[in-house]
Amino acid sequence: MLKPDLLIVGAGPAGMSAAVVAARAGLSVMVVDEQPTPGGQIWRGIEANAGTARGRALGAPYLSGLATVRAFRESGAVYWPSTRVWQIEPTLRTYVTGPDGTLMIQPSAILIATGAQERPAPFRGWTLPGVMTVGAAQILLKAPGTVPAAPVWIAGCGPLALLYAHQLVRLGGAVAGFLDTRMPAPLAGAARLAAGAVLRSGRELAKGAYWYADLHRRAGRYVRGVVDLQALGTDRVEGVRYRTADGRVEEVETSLLLIHEGVVPELHTARSLGCQTRWHAGQAAYVPVLNEWGESSVPGILVAGDAAGIGGAEAAIQRGRLAALRILSRLGRLPAGQEGAEAACRKALARALAPRAFLDRIFMPRENVFLPDDDTIVCRCEELRVRDLRGALSCSVGANQLKAFTRAGMGPCQGRQCAYTVASLIANVEARPMGDVEPFRVRPPLKPVRLCDVASLAEEAAPP
Amino acid sequence: MFRLLEQGRSGEDAVTIDLDGQPVRARAGETVASVLMREAEAWCRATPVSQARRAPYCMMGVCFDCLMLVEGEGLLRACQTYVRDGMKIRRQIGARHVVPSC
Ligand SMILES: Cc1cc2nc3c(=O)[nH]c(=O)nc-3n(C[C@H](O)[C@@H](O)[C@H](O)COP(=O)(O)OP(=O)(O)OC[C@H]3O[C@@H](n4cnc5c(N)ncnc54)[C@H](O)[C@@H]3O)c2cc1C
Ligand code: FES
């Protein structure tokens, strides 16, 4: 069995940055990532795209990833691409499956750097072919370089939707219309936050404002304050229906609708280990409970990057480095001369997080983002609608009982698409705050694994 | 639904996969789901519960709506499966049947 000092799950900005610090200081580091190349979400496909027109169109923050990837490749950390972690035990024993089969790893510390996923935001018709997330479309843009064949409709809110629209147009795609679901109210209250944020990170915000202006100019239509979004069609999307801020119901024809309602931390890994989590109202998301180093409530398990709470790529880099420094000092391997490293990371982290409260506020998802109407599918896997859950909801059950009664959350996605909605429905019916509702427990395997892969472990464990 | 930005130079980085018996050209290194999104019939499965059609939704492995049959093996995420020349891909209709594959 492999026994590295440090196992890192995820080769995005956080995981790679941690690996560089730890490996340079002499730790044996293993980095496992499901993707075939390093970069995580933001820098997906960076090695192939750098130096191409597509790379340039994706923008400077994208291209900046190449330096981190190179440093990571040269760091001495052992990198296992195309390999997924499907179980971590509280003893830190970890099971992974990749091109070389299934392996057990027993590291001294684990850094969970699994990033974020887009916030699941159910609405009528969201399971139809032709409805996909903005992040999905952006993944197709980064590799292999595909864009919607016709001018596309985008609905929702969040920086990623603006960024994608901008990148798409730069690459010769077109936006037919943007349906902004953002609640108009919080903007006013955000003025104070804005002032502080502009002072500390004016450039970042100017970029965002520029994306916005660009979108206004280039999108065929820009509709503000959209509610009651609905994808229409039977076997595939044929159109979109929505209500405008002034109450008019409009319909447009389209065979593709991209939806985005912000991102939330990947929590499955941490929660499967029993790491404590809490509701973060400002980000409308559950986040792991961590100390200032990223240490979770389970000894030896640290979390960094967007999996620790949404902070963006620069914050992910700094949190990754801090976690690595902590692991080094816990193992008594912090090299001399690293005293200044922590302070530098903390300073850069504070700078990276300066605009966050403002961004969280202006992109706060609509209030009912997790509270769809009775006819909407909540659990995509088991095809359960809100009304199918009503019966179980009325008799005061927790999420886990509801799962047993209705099968919501029991399908292959294991609640990744419905856990928030189910928790929110329970909170709503029982008039409790979200923070009081415990979401589904997470059980291994975290990712699908074949029986024969599990069986092959027995062979490895057996004496030769 | 989607189109490639740059057409590949002839053959060089191209592979051909078998999608429900039809040959489909693909780029080396792309995922099955990404190929599918350029097809006229851009759906990947019919659900076990109501036979409703589904298509890839998240492309990053967290929705499990892109499950397909790959080389006889069921319930594989097409967005996490990379194409190989001659790979046999089938839309998954209804529940999976157990196929001994290893
Ligand atoms: C679809 C999507 C697109 C985004 N695009 C952008 C963008 O263009 N610009 C931007 O500024 N921000 C973007 N973000 C926000 C993103 O979260 C960044 O802030 C940044 O990528 C976070 O870095 P990270 O290191 O925390 O995680 P990530 O970059 O997300 O890296 C996490 C890595 O962990 C791997 N992983 C997860 N679970 C497992 C497992 N069980 N086994 C093995 N590997 C695993 C994943 O494959 C991934 O490569 C995007 C987010 C999403 C969800
Ligand atoms: S498209 Fe969501 S898991 Fe593949």
From TrEMBL, chain A:
<dbReference type="Pfam" id="PF17806">
    <property type="entry name" value="SO_alpha_A3"/>
</dbReference>
<dbReference type="InterPro" id="IPR041117">
    <property type="entry name" value="SoxA_A3"/>
</dbReference>
<dbReference type="InterPro" id="IPR023753">
    <property type="entry name" value="FAD/NAD-binding_dom"/>
</dbReference>
<feature type="domain" description="FAD/NAD(P)-binding">
    <location>
        <begin position="5"/>
        <end position="320"/>
    </location>
</feature>
<feature type="domain" description="SoxA A3">
    <location>
        <begin position="384"/>
        <end position="454"/>
    </location>
</feature>
<dbReference type="InterPro" id="IPR017224">
    <property type="entry name" value="Opine_Oxase_asu/HCN_bsu"/>
</dbReference>
<protein>
    <submittedName>
        <fullName>FAD-dependent oxidoreductase</fullName>
    </submittedName>
</protein>
<dbReference type="InterPro" id="IPR051691">
    <property type="entry name" value="Metab_Enz_Cyan_OpOx_G3PDH"/>
</dbReference>
<dbReference type="InterPro" id="IPR036188">
    <property type="entry name" value="FAD/NAD-bd_sf"/>
</dbReference>
<keyword id="KW-0560">Oxidoreductase</keyword>
<dbReference type="GO" id="GO:0016491">
    <property type="term" value="F:oxidoreductase activity"/>
</dbReference>
<dbReference type="InterPro" id="IPR041854">
    <property type="entry name" value="BFD-like_2Fe2S-bd_dom_sf"/>
</dbReference>
<dbReference type="Pfam" id="PF07992">
    <property type="entry name" value="Pyr_redox_2"/>
</dbReference>
From TrEMBL, chain B:
<dbReference type="GO" id="GO:0016491">
    <property type="term" value="F:oxidoreductase activity"/>
</dbReference>
<keyword id="KW-0560">Oxidoreductase</keyword>
<dbReference type="InterPro" id="IPR042204">
    <property type="entry name" value="2Fe-2S-bd_N"/>
</dbReference>
<dbReference type="GO" id="GO:0051536">
    <property type="term" value="F:iron-sulfur cluster binding"/>
</dbReference>
<dbReference type="InterPro" id="IPR036010">
    <property type="entry name" value="2Fe-2S_ferredoxin-like_sf"/>
</dbReference>
<protein>
    <submittedName>
        <fullName>(2Fe-2S)-binding protein</fullName>
    </submittedName>
</protein>
<dbReference type="Pfam" id="PF13510">
    <property type="entry name" value="Fer2_4"/>
</dbReference>
